[in-house]
Every structure is written in structure tokens, then in C-alpha cells.
Amino acid sequence: MSKLSALLALGLTLLLCACSSSSSSSGDEDDLGTPLRVTYIAYKSGQHLELVNEAHTGRLEQYSAVRSDAARKVQTNDVMRGLVEVLEKNGFKERAQEGAAPANAGVMVWALEIEDAQGLRHIGPVPGLSPEENHDLLRLAAAFVDTYNATYGLQAVELKDDSKFFQTPTSKSRK
To answer: Dihedral (C-alpha) 121, 127, 129, 134: value to the nearest 10 degrees?
Structure first.
């Protein structure tokens, strides 16, 4: 089994376990967990995808308000803890730079941030990495994107200007 297959299998297992477990309502800090946020930034498109756990932002708090975008999704504490563990065990911990990812692309095409009890750290491909190092970084991004895509979200979003649902900028010109 390849590393990528193992990562995906672990991620899906964590997701299934979290979906089948019930949330605790005792209110203890141990039950709430550590607030976690993992963000993927694609500089060319300007896209920011964000996963937070329930200790960071409750589902009701996130999904009951109309927002400007639907980029943030709320995942269970267990799945987020598992995602961060997978990322750290597969190179994030060794390669991470302290602080937030750069606001502008600079030399990076994309970046991945983790914010937890240790603070804010980021990684991203930079010139000079070997093909194997670039491949390792892409696996980390894929683990995040797979978890993000498997996370259910029901965000109400404001329409801007004369926009319509499911209409992309290129489809506006087609009439």
C-alpha cells in the first residue's frame, strides 16, 4: 500500500469513526478539545479553504449565520485531531515555518496552515525542493482537500451584485 493510499484510508477511517460517535455535552474542557484550524490557500485563485473543529467554532454558530462565503467548514474534534496528526507525521512538523502563510504568493503557489495550541505554522512549496519533497507536500495538501471535501457543510451565503446561484463569471457572458 502506498503512503498516499494509507493516508487516505486513515483519513476516511477517522471520518467514519467521528460520524458514528456522539458529541459529549458535559462541558468539560477535555470534552471540548483544543481549538484547531487548518487552512489551504491557493494564491493564484485567491481561494482559502478552512476546516475548524467544534472546539474552535460550533456548527450552530457557523452555519446559522449568512456569510460572504462558504469556505469554512466545521469538523468533529476527533477528525481534526486525526488530520493534524497525519499532517505532522508526514512532514508538516519538520518543514513548517512559524507564523501565518504569506499574504501574497511570492514564490509559493499554495500554502497550508495549522493553528493549534502550539501556535500558527505554515508550509508551502518553494524553489529548490527536490521532486520527492514537492511530492510529499502535495500529499499533505491532498490529505487536507480530501478531508475538506468529505466534510458536510450547510453555509448560507450572500449573493453579491447581480450574481445568481451556480453562475460562474464565465457563464455570465454566455446568454
So the answer is: 70
Residue 111: inside a domain, yes or no?
yes
Asked if the structure places residue 43 within a domain, the reply is yes
Q: What is the pLDDT of residues 68-106, one digit of tens each?
A: 778 899 999 999 999 999 999 999 999 999 999 988 878
Handedness of CA 25, 28, 30, 32 (dihedral sign): positive
In the chain, the number of structural domains is 1
Residue 168 lies in a domain: no
Measured distance CA(132)–CA(134) in Å, rounded: 5
User: What are phi and psi for residue 16, nearest 5 degrees?
Assistant: -65, -40
> Tell me, what's the pLDDT at 157?
79
Strands 72-75 and 47-53: parallel
Chain segment 158-171, per-residue pLDDT in tens = 777 766 666 666 65
The percentage of the chain sitting over the pLDDT mark of 70, rounded to a whole number, equals 73
Residue 110 lies in a domain: yes
Question: For the purposes of burial, counting CB atoms within 10 Å of the CB of 27, is it exposed (0-12), middle (13-18) or buried (19 or more)?
Answer: exposed
